[in-house]
């Protein structure tokens, strides 16, 4: 694993940390490739059910490493996108833990996550228009699907910074914490997720993500294709037995 990305696995949770604090965790090619390498391994591990994505040194990410970009260092991986996950987010649930700045591509990484925890001092923004650019890593597509249209337009068109409290008001941030406590709170949420059946988690996330494009006529058929194997799984039986026996289930992921 590259030093630019750190991975720690414990209790069914993998914490993925962007580790370039001196550059405000700006994303370069090494970070993107390391994120892909980490996820390729973690997606196959049965002892990992959820992820937390965060940044080292008190900030999430200031976005693309512009100095690197000018020298030809591309911060994306074909088929996976900016930072290794904006185009193809992981199949398993992922929680963003945001301290400090989540700007430009950094904000787009947050938008690729399923749940967002932020310090009350965190700042979000898509400042690309201020630099003659466009938020092309999913920001201008995902944002209006997550929050009210006019608020999304204000964020995208002004390029200004917006506090965590404002994004909590409009539903983009799930939980606000005191400074320095976003990671702990994100891990707590991830632990609650990881306590559930792995197959059920994968199917639930997949239906929620993919169903946005389903027609009314096909929605239940498509859902059935995804969730029917869950109902016939060993974990479905274990869940029922554990409930009847008033004990915690022992998931097999099968």
UniProtKB/TrEMBL annotation:
Pfam families documented for this protein: ECH_1
Xref: CDD domains: crotonase-like (cd06558)
Lineage: superkingdom: Bacteria
Protein keywords: Lipid metabolism, Lyase
InterPro entries tied to this protein: ClpP/crotonase-like_dom_sf, Enoyl-CoA_hyd/isom_CS, Enoyl-CoA_hydra/iso, Enoyl-CoA_hydra_C
PANTHER family, A to Z: (7AS)-7A-METHYL-1,5-DIOXO-2,3,5,6,7,7A-HEXAHYDRO-1H-INDENE-CARBOXYL-COA HYDROLASE, ENOYL-COA HYDRATASE-RELATED
Similarity comment: Belongs to the enoyl-CoA hydratase/isomerase family.
Name of the molecule in the record: Crotonase/enoyl-CoA hydratase family protein
Source species: Sphaerisporangium corydalis
